[in-house]
């Protein structure tokens, strides 16, 4: 065992001598040095763990002490690897688009210079309002941009910095939310990772120059606090944090008020106390000023209203989605056969099972799957022209805000199914095989989904696969974080310039500046995904090593679980 760290460099040396296209792509890209440093860090970590196992618990024997030492660092490895994976995903495939982003930084500039709040006119292709109506963008992203502009300068990287931070935190927040909902370590880790690396979501939603990643990270945080409030005997400060997070989510995207209202109302009905009122007041204090401003500027308490919302549009959009977008998405994922239908069916069944399990544990938890379903229903009820239903990337981006909630509820369903299968086998006296079989199937499923997602993100263009599957990347310009930050591109102040500012000319110059750095047909993206896989493999192994844990007691009066490894210990 002591010689293992010394052997790792030799193993790495043998690997790089093998002829393989992925190895060549990685070794010839900017990720080679980072991968070498990561492997060196693994070797150092293994050496320290083996050394400490000899000195810390000698009464357990070397193997027992090694297991105890690994158990101590496993929670930190899981969180650290998910944060690292989030940073890598945030740093790759950054879309250089300004049509929507310009609105948000214009609002930020108006607020910073005391010029009021920008109001926009709706049109036929506007999802937020109909023709002849006025609307406003939610203030969360402009508020964050005002801060990043003050700290980092008035540049494009500063405008995108809030999304970078949110993307970096998303996998870890989703993992913590799944643990708070009573999901075991391995399933929770897979859920956290897949929230960030599912290819269409990562490219079309999380990688967009929109507040989508802020909403996703905020929703994961709200889900974690929602579950913690319901399972804690004395939530107190948790209620304040829950109210603040819900208020932030409400001010981020049009779907925000739906999630904030349902989750706050369900938690308040299940737990009545002075701290409940304090949490509700906290959310109200954050949201009420914007509602008053909206009433004054556009004549209604909320400035965005779905255009043409109707059951007829819901039926039309569902028909287009299943007839056109579903098969196109299957081809993009290289699953243009029965596997995509099986995968979609499994996700739907796990969501239904997870929703039923949450309601059985505590009725208030049913607000989370209900909010996700209402989100999808309202979004798909918008006018097809405004929603651009026939465009695969646009439809996916519009329904993507519900994805974190769907993954969390689905993770509960998968976890409940795994526990039920293990208990069924134990009743038949299969005391050794079921545990190994459950872990083995979990490893296979998690590895297949995560590795498949990372492979597609590493090879996002049609020429990698052929066969008319289409390209995952849109025709937009995509860059990675080093190219974006190396020479920060300055942004104008639209409200300061007034009508003299030519948006089309600015966009032309911006695209001309970044087009030579476009990652289309490059291999740097493969390096980011390979590094993500290396981190995820370590964290996934650490999570599986902790075994299956009992679900948190979320029924009846909320109590803290004293069981070893219960979600409080995550």
Termini Cα gap? 29 Å
Shape: globular
The percent of residues in helical segments reads 55-70%
Number of domains: 1
In terms of quaternary structure, the protein is: single chain
Low-confidence stretches: 548-552, 556-570
Strand order of the largest sheet: 1-4
Rg (C-alpha, Å): 24 Å
SSE arrangement, N to C? HHHHEHEEHHHHHHHHHHHHHHHEHHHH
- For the residues shown, what is the average pLDDT? 83
Number of helices: 24
| Helix/strand class | mainly alpha
Q: Largest sheet at a glance?
A: 2 strands, antiparallel
β-strand number = 4
Task: Give an overview of the whole structure.
Helix content is 69%, strand content 1%. It is mainly α and 570 residues long. The chain has one domain. The chain has a two-stranded antiparallel sheet. A two-stranded antiparallel ribbon has the order 2-3. The two termini are 29 Å apart.
Write the layout of secondary structure elements.
Layout: H1 4-17, H2 21-27, H3 31-55, H4 61-91, E1 94-95, H5 99-112, E2 120-121, E3 134-135, H6 140-152, H7 156-180, H8 185-197, H9 199-206, H10 212-231, H11 237-250, H12 256-270, H13 274-298, H14 311-332, H15 338-361, H16 367-380, H17 384-387, H18 392-399, H19 403-427, H20 433-458, E4 478-479, H21 481-486, H22 494-497, H23 503-514, H24 524-545
Antiparallel strand pairs: 1-4, 2-3
Helix pairs in contact: 1-3, 3-4, 3-24, 4-7, 4-8, 4-24, 5-6, 6-7, 7-8, 7-10, 8-19, 8-20, 8-24, 9-18, 10-11, 10-12, 10-19, 11-12, 11-13, 12-16, 14-16, 15-19, 16-19, 19-20, 20-24
